[in-house]
Amino acid sequence: MKKALIIVDVQNDFCEGGALAVPGANEIIPYINALMEENEYDQIVLTQDWHPANHKSFASNNGRKVGESIILNGVPQFMWPDHCIQDTFGAEFHKDLNRDKVTHIVQKGKNVEIDSYSGFQDNNHFMKTGLDDFLKYHDIQLLEIVGLAMDYCVKYTCIDAVNNGYVTCLHFNGTRAVNVKPDNGRDAIYDMIQKGVTVLG
C-alpha cells in the first residue's frame, strides 16, 4: 500500500511569534522531521495557506473584530487576523521544517471570496486544490497527516481524506490546536474518529 505524509500549514504565521500563532506549534516540528527521517513515504506533500491580502476571512477586510463570525458565500466564516498573505514572511514554511524530501506543495485559500481549511478543497466544496488528483495519480492509498491546526485545517484535511477513500491516520504528537474555545481540540479529535480517522498516539 503506497503512503504519503501530508504536512498541513507549518508556516511562520501559525508558529511562535506569528500573526495567528497556535499554542505549542513549534514543538511539533522535530516530531515531523523525525517522521520523514525514520519512515519511507512514497510522497511527502506540504499544504500552504496562501491568501491574497484582501481575503474575506480576515476581520480587517470586513470591518469586524477577530473572533466574530459572518456568513461568507453561504457558509459560516470565523473572522481571523490577517495571516499567511501571499509572498510574505508569514506565509513561508518555518525554517526548522526539513523540506529535503518534500515532493509536492499544494496552495490553498487563494480565492478572495471563500476560505479553504482543507488541503483538498475550499470550505464550500466548490473548488478542488488538486491534492486528490496528485495522490490518485501516484496510487497513494494511505495518508498520514500532521500539522496546524488540529481543530481547523488538519481536521478538515483528515475528514476530506476519508471521504476521498484514503486510509487516514492522524499523528496526535504532530499537531496542535488553536483552541479558540478550550474544548475545540478535543472535539476535533472526536469528530475525526467518528468520520473514520485513525488517531496515532
From TrEMBL:
Residues 4-199 form the Isochorismatase-like domain. Gene3D superfamilies: Isochorismatase-like. Pathway: Cofactor biosynthesis; nicotinate biosynthesis; nicotinate from nicotinamide: step 1/1. Its EC number is 3.5.1.19. The keyword Hydrolase applies. Keywords: Hydrolase, Metal-binding, Pyridine nucleotide biosynthesis. PANTHER family: LD05707P, PYRAZINAMIDASE/NICOTINAMIDASE. Belongs to the isochorismatase family. This is nicotinamidase. It comes from Chryseobacterium profundimaris. The lineage of its organism: Bacteria, Pseudomonadati, Bacteroidota, Flavobacteriia, Flavobacteriales.
